[in-house]
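tokens incoming
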């Protein structure tokens, strides 16, 4: 029986030269893959899936024709990519709007 090794790495576990933000700063956007550029926009992955893996999943899900017209909301909601952080932000926006209306 062989031992399984952990193959998925978090961004912090990657060598600095492979991290999207560091690559962007050192080489510019032209040297980054589409998944690395999207990973920078997304900022974080999900449990068990680093941000680059999540970006790859999104890029596979949508066609090249769809991507330019998508909003962030289209991406995170369409396939359940919405994380607690985004849900919390949306709830805070709604609460702020409600409080603003009541305070008038």
């Amino acid at each position: 029986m062989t031992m399984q090794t952990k193959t998925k790495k978090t961004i912090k576990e990657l060598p600095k030269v492979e991290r999207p933000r560091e690559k962007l700063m050192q080489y510019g956007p032209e040297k980054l893959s589409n998944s690395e550029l999207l990973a920078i926009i997304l900022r974080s992955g999900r449990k068990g899936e680093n941000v680059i893996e999540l970006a790859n999943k999104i890029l596979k899900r949508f066609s090249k024709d769809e991507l330019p017209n998508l909003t962030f909301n289209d991406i995170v909601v369409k396939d359940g990519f919405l994380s607690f952080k985004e849900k919390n932000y949306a709830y805070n926006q709604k609460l702020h709007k409600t409080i603003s209306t009541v305070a008038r």
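note: The helical segments are 20-27, 34-42, 51-61, 72-78, 84-103.
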